[in-house]
Design brief:
Order of helices and strands: HHH
Oligomer: single chain
Number of helices: 3
Radius of gyration: 47 Å
Number of domains: 2
């Protein structure tokens, strides 16, 4: 019986050795997973930082962007300013035509013809 117990003990010792080898392999796998996890975590953190920067840049661009309504208003204001300036120039031009007609530098027909060609033509 002692012999059989010794055989059984040897088998258990062999099984123990195999388990120790399996444990060592699992320890190596655990180390590799820890390394991979560390690398992936660092990569994820760097991606988060880049996304945060992109998000900030998009917000800045949104805040600086001109809207259609704003642009339409500015163009309407500019058009109004241009009309006012053109009308002032038109008054000067009309005065010049009148002076030239009074001094008989141009005929009344020529003056009429020229005044009908203006942006704000006389009728």
């Amino acid at each position: 019986m002692n012999k059989q117990f010794k055989r059984i003990d040897k088998r258990f010792e062999q099984v123990d050795k195999r388990f120790e080898q399996v444990d060592k392999r699992f320890e190596q796998v655990d180390k590799q997973f820890e390394q991979v996890f560390t690398v992936m975590h660092e990569y994820a953190m760097s991606v988060d930082v880049r996304f945060d920067k992109v998000h900030e840049e998009l917000n800045r661009m949104k805040n600086d962007m001109v809207t259609k309504e704003y642009l339409d208003n500015k163009l309407a204001d500019l058009r109004g300013d241009m009309v006012v300036l053109t009308r002032k120039e038109n008054e000067k031009f009309n005065a010049l035509v009148e002076i030239l007609t009074m001094r008989k530098a141009i005929t009344a027909e020529d003056a009429d013809k020229v005044l009908k060609m203006q942006p704000f033509a006389r009728t």
